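Predict the assembly for these two chains.
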Amino acid sequence: MHDVKWIKQHRVGDKIFNISLYIFFALCAFVCFYPFYYLFINSISANDVSARGGVFLHPIGVHFTNYISMFMLEGLGNATFITLSRTVLGTLATLLGSTVLGFAFTQQKMWGRVFWYRWVIATMYFSAGLIPVYITYLHLGLINNFWVYILPAVIAPFNVILVKTYIESTPASLQEAAEIDGAGFLRIYATIILPISKPIIATVAIFAAVGQWNAFTDTLIFITDERLFPLQFMLYRFLTQSASLAQLIRASGGAPGIDMSILQYMQTPTSVRMTISVIVFTPVLFVYPFFQRFFVKGIMIGSVKG
Amino acid sequence: MKHTAKKKSNFRKWEGFKIFLFTAPFLLLVFLFAYLPLFGWIHAFYDYHPRFRMFQAPFVGFQWFTLMFSTASWRRMLAEVMTNTFAMSFIGILTSWLPMAFAILLNEIHNVKYRRVVQTLTTIPNFISWVLVYSLAFSLLSSSGLINDLLMRFDIISRPIMFLHMGNGDHVWAAMWGLGTWKTLGWSAIIYMAAIAGIDQELYEAARVDGANRFRTIWHITIPGLIPTYMVLLLLSIAHFLNSGIESTYVFQNAFNLRRIQTLDLYVFNLGIGAASYSLATAIGMMKSFVSLVLLFTVNYISKLVRGESII
């Protein structure tokens, strides 16, 4: 009798615990996701309503003129171009550096292999500091130079380790067969290593691309030329300098064929901020769920190495 | 026979050298971007300005190092910056068990679909930039943002709360911790989720046969199974104690909270790039690099001592 009561109580306790867990995690998910939803519904709502803060459940007075006028804003098209270029080129640079080095370091016969491997890996553990780096880049001519986004990305010691570890885990017989056929380093790299390393390449590529897309501090430190500002930096400026934003809005004619004097469509600092934010986070939001397994794989391989 | 063997070995050497040649451009880039800046430390002993050419700047010896500690106002400034850095890192380390707890609790949800949706949604903030975090915070927390708007609508408050001023700096540490946790909690939990999946299921079955309830299995099986992972991450975060980075603090700094948000990294940036005191900022950054390296080796030594494994 006593036992049954104990189990019953226990089950009730268990149930309450379960329900609280479900509620707790629903809240976590909501807190993490709602801000994105809030910005999105506001960016497509009537601007006079959203400026008053009246939109928080669903969009009101849906229109897409905000997005159309965004492309009329001076400098934004250019910033999009910079962001896209640095994401594509920067990702390719990281991939090239980490696959060539990662593969080379698996070759026992490489001249000075151990030394050069340490040469690369050691850079993970020290940094000269911000100002010495700045001065060096200044002397290298990288200040206010687009390549400051790309060239430093070529070396990613952690990714070199990832690729090297991955290649070492694949059967060596393929490489050996190719070597017997007389294939050199580049041939083996292009025809064997790249195809078999697809999973790790995808992982490295996605981390590199997200990093490039989100990068902000390198612009802050090394760039003052407005033509080289990426979207993230434009967004930051719009967030902190409403004066320049208002000026920009007045200067732009708005979307063609739409009477911008109608309050609903009139661009406000709030509408511009929200719309750019949505443009900036949407790719990440869409890319992430589809590539989640690569991200998870990346963190797992990384943790093995520590 | 001997002759061909030698020829073969020479050929192999040449092949090995060719591989080096292919990597040489990348190794050169490593030199340019990671090693060459180390020579820049020399500027800590000069009064550097970009208009000077190398070594034309006046040599000042240890002037910058002594200046930092010379007057009361400099000492106060340094103490303030160090306090901020330590406080923020320390709060982070104190709460570093949160991702583990999050993973353990999430693992108690047996509906796989629900779990995956929660995991996906809570991980997303990790992949947006701090600028976007600021933008979201601006929309929700600024004086005209959603939270203030709702609170005023329901007459809970009469004047907007200035969240972004962070109580004129009084709540900066808590606010930055909260934002950082919002951003990284779900992502940091993933590594523990994977570690839980790696725990031998037979242990759980054996415990259940012995009559252990779920709290006991968590306490006696799950948590001990996660402690090694936790220790590695904890040691790494201690090694990175001074490296707060500038992105998060830079975007959230303003005139109201600067006194409490300025960490060592941000201070070096504001001083060096913002105020063009290159040499002084180099000197401060140099000391930081040394302390960081000492921390890293100490932590690695502890790890070797305790776990018999190196973390670097």
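The mean pLDDT of chain A is 84. Residues 94 and 154 of chain A are 4 Å apart (CA to CA).
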